[in-house]
Design brief:
124 residues; mainly alpha; two-stranded antiparallel ribbon; 60% helix; binds zinc ion
């Protein structure tokens, strides 16, 4: 079982990670007010020359893929924070086993234990 102290520590890590992701997202995207944890990438305005337009498109596409991966991460973090509140934190979503503190220390938003994760990745 995770100790209260350990959970507190992991909660702090999650909140810090959440802040840092929101900060990264705010650099190029705006928060969608209607959907929770959803951001919209803004189209960059570099200039009106053809090469500048091309650069805008490249940047936009890169930002969108970055936006999606940051959003996924944010969702996992919020899910983990919810689980802390409802005392369900630290269990593998697949097999229900406790996820060891050593693993959560590295990745507190982990939803699967190492063995389920490797099985899951192998099946993809
Ligand atoms: Zn598992």
């Amino acid at each position: 079982m995770l100790q209260d102290k350990e959970i507190k520590e992991l909660e702090k890590k999650l909140i810090d990670a959440k802040k840092s992701i929101e900060k990264q997202l705010s650099k190029f995207a705006t928060k969608d007010k209607t959907i929770e944890d959803n951001y919209r990438t803004e189209f960059p305005d570099i200039g009106n020359q053809a090469d500048e337009n091309a650069q805008e498109i490249t940047e936009y596409e890169q930002n969108i893929s970055l936006e999606h991966s940051l959003e996924d991460e944010l969702k996992l973090i919020n899910k983990a924070l919810d689980k802390i509140k409802s005392n369900k934190f630290g269990r593998c979503e697949i097999c229900g086993q406790e996820i060891p503190y050593e693993r959560l220390k590295i990745r507190p938003q982990a939803v699967m234990c190492v063995s389920c994760k490797s099985k899951n990745e192998a099946s993809l």
